[in-house]
Every structure is written in structure tokens, then in C-alpha cells.
Amino acid sequence: MPERLDGDSAASLLASLPDTVVAADARGRIVYVNSAVTTLLGHAAADVVGLPLTAIMPERFRAGHGAHITRFLTTGKGELVGNTTQLPALHADGHEVAIDVTLGRVDLPGLGDAIVAVLRDASTTILLERQLQVSRYLAATLRVTAALTEAPDADAAFERLLPSLCAELDWDCATFWAPDPTGQQLVYGGIWAVPGVDVAALHQAKQGMTFVRGQGLPGLTWRRQAPLAVEDLQTAPPAHGAAAARAAGFRTGVAFPVLRGDTLLGVCELFTRQSRPAPPELLDVLGNAGRQIGQFLGRLRAESEMRELADTLQRSLLPSTLPSVPGLDLAARYRPGGPALVGGDTYDVVPLPDGRWMVLIADVCGTGAEAAAVTALTRHTARAAAAGSGDPAEVLAAVHAALVHEQAGGPLRFVTAVCLVLEPGPGGARARLAVAGHPRPLLRSGAAWAEVGVVGRPLGVGDDARFESLSLELGPGASLVLYTDGVTEARDADGEQLGEDGLARLLTRPGPDAAECIAETIAGAVAERVRGSRFEADDLAVLAITVPA
User: Fold this and answer.
1) What pLDDT does 301 receive?
2) How far apart are CA 437 and CA 375, in angstroms?
3) All domains of the chain in start order, with CATH
């Protein structure tokens, strides 16, 4: 059998332990403490002996713990018995120290029933727990941002924000506040709650609320430009404006700003019905999350605004509707390709003073604002030149000269184009055609389709460009198709282009001969071809002209 320890051996053993061991008598006064108390709480062991056990507790806990100690010594029962519990202790210099406490009851010779408490520094455990919580929140905020990336625009992203926050950050309810158009106050933007949490009353209460900077939890967060937590909404001061959340039964709230740079996009509030600590590390994570979400939402909003501007610009480079040309049917299709906001393809149909009509289709090198400027120059120059000359070759020459002049000393922006001047008449139309570096139009007269036109140099390249015009007769049943290379260069999943032969085969399939059907057949076939292809689609423009049979 192992030998029993005598009193001196036991004292020596306790003194060597790294944990603080405290023994208190039936009155709750400390009768023994080992030297580890100096490292943990800054007290000399001799100075603590004789003091009440509650002397090493913060004052706000002394009354309650005194009663617990008496009950424990009387009944041997208590919440802390046999369990390790985290509590604050009072350091000799007055600050609080988080400790893990384990209690036991012993019978000390000469003292009777006594409490033995083992105290251990909990700071390392707390730090690890906080680091784990921070890592969970970081992962959750990444999932929130990932969920927002699937939104097609900023409005949809804002709609997904609150449910994503509640689901990923494990809060019961979230509200959103957004600046009003004047930027002088926050207005209520919506609420979302997890299933089973009734927020109807809270939603009703918040609908009429507004907050200026510094007012209420949203306004205080706005002023601070940083997260703000209210761990106990029941005792929150009036300045936090927590009455509605408190009445709805929520215990803890936290708000954080959604920022793009220094611009406030909104304030998110999170509420829970359970008391929850909000350590500084958590607030730091929420602050960073607010900036990440703000950057993403701001980018989405800017992209939406850019798309709206690009759509407006693109529409200005295309006819809103095609005019009605006597004796002819016209139809067109346009589709931008790739991620570019403004494509380089355009078409135009313009009446001339003498009753003829100019038809133009063009493809500008590049995309974006610079390409749009070249497109506008091409269209307006062609219109002006056509009004003074009925020859399409002269129209293209005028556009070429304008481009060369405009690009002097700048980057080369060449243009390919087809210009057609139509003179409608009984039973069809006479036409003259000129081509500048562009795919030749396809003409059907009878059953077969054939390319027409003499291809000259692209517009804007060199000083001595010459263009040749060709006469055409469009009789009853004839069709003429003008298109850009986004049609013939469309690639399928294997990288194979449609090509001129493929386009001709497509047009020879049985089907209606109306211009609308021809344009839709081409645009639909190209869309189907590039769907799922890894190759980026180019801009596409198609203009079909038919003469009724």
C-alpha cells in the first residue's frame, strides 16, 4: 500500500502545485493558501489567510457568493461543486482576473467542514476560445460574401445580406438601416429572422423609425464608423434606442457599419434572445466584415450604374426602331459579346433627301468608351456624307478621312463597314453597295445565296484607301443580309467557327422568307452555338432586307 502523507508532506505537496489552492473554514474565512496565489492574484499567502473567501472576488459578486458558500457548507451542495467554472477574481492591484474554479468539501482536523478551491488562470483558455470564435466568424463572413457574389446586382445582394448574416453568424434576427437620399439620417431597410422567431412587432415598431448620426444603436454605429455591442439590452441606456428590441424579448444586440471606404452604405443590427458576450475580437471581425461587404456591394452598385450608362450609350449608337421603307421589309438583331459593357458593332437606316435610303453596318475595333466614340463618329459622318452624295463608296471615303484625321497621333481604331444606298421602286429596289474590310453581304436572288461586293481596305487605315461601289437589283422575293463577323466567327464548344459556308447553309434551310424570320434565325443559331462554349463571343449585328414576292 502507498504510504499516507503526514501534515508536513501534504503542505509541501500543496506548496509545489502550480495551481492556487485555497481552503476556507465553516465561516468562509481563508485558513490556508499556497504560494501560487502570488503568481495568480498578486497577494502574499500570509496576507490572505484570515480574510473572507469573498475578499478575492469582485465586490459585485460578494453577497451572492457568500450565500452560496454558507449553503454549500451546510448542505454539501452547490452549482460549482464538482465542476470547473469560469469566474472573475480580484487581483491585489484591483483589476479582475478570469479564473477557472473547482470546489470541493473536506473535513479539516480541528476545523471541521471546510471548502477547498483550486484556482487556475483562465486567460489562456479564454484566448483560445476567442481565437476559435474569431476563426468561426471569419469563416462565416467569407461564406456571407460568397453568397452575395451570386447576386446579379446590388439590390439582390442587399436582399440576401440579412438572411446570410443570421444563418452564418448564428443570430436570431437582423435589421438593416440605409442612408436616406439626403444622407442626413438612417431609414429602416428591412428585417429578417430565423424560422420560429416572431419579429412582426419589432418590424412594425421599426418601420416609422429614423436615426440621425449619434442617435440610437444604428446612429451611434454610424458616428463611430465601427461596431457597437449592447450585451444586455434589458439594462441598455435610452441613448441606444433599444426599447423595441427589448420589448420583443431580445437580450443582446450588436451593430456594425457597412462601409465603402469612408462612405456609409448602411448599418446592420444583429439580435439574439440569449445573452451573448461580444468581445473586442468579435467586434473587429464584424468591422472587417462590414468593410468587405461594403466593398463588394459598392462594386456591385457601381457596376449596375455602369451597365445602365453603358446601355444608354449603346442604345444611342443603334436605331431605337427601324424605319418603314416603301416596298421593303427590314429587320435587325444586335447582341453585345463578352464582358464588354459597350460593343463596337452598329447599324443604321437613314432616309436621304431625294427619296433614297442609306443602310450602314459597321464593326469598330475594340470595345468600351473609346470604341463608342469611334462608332458615333462613323455613324454621324456616314449620315452627313450620304445626304450630299448618293454613292456608297464616297460615303465610306468620307468616313475613312474623318477617322484618319481624328486618330492622328493616337491609337489606331479601324472600322470595317458595308454601306448600301437603296432606291425603292415598283416591284423591288435598285441599290449600290460598297464594302470596307467587312464580311460581304449575302444576296439571294432565286434559290441560291451568294456573297456580293468588292472588299476594300478597312476604314481608318492608311491615307490612300479607295472603295468600289457595285450595282444590285433586288427584285420580288430577293433577300439581302448584312452582318458583322460576330456571326461567322461564333465558336462552338470544340472551337469550330460557323463560317461563311455555315451561314449560307443555315439560310438555305426551309423556312419563312420574311426579314424578321431571317434575322431571328441567324441570331438564334449563333446564341445556341456559343452557349456553353469556352470561347468568348463577339458582338453581333444582323440586318436583313427582303422584297416581298
Assistant:
1) 74
2) 16
3) 7-121 (3.30.450.20), 133-308 (3.30.450.40), 319-546 (3.60.40.10)
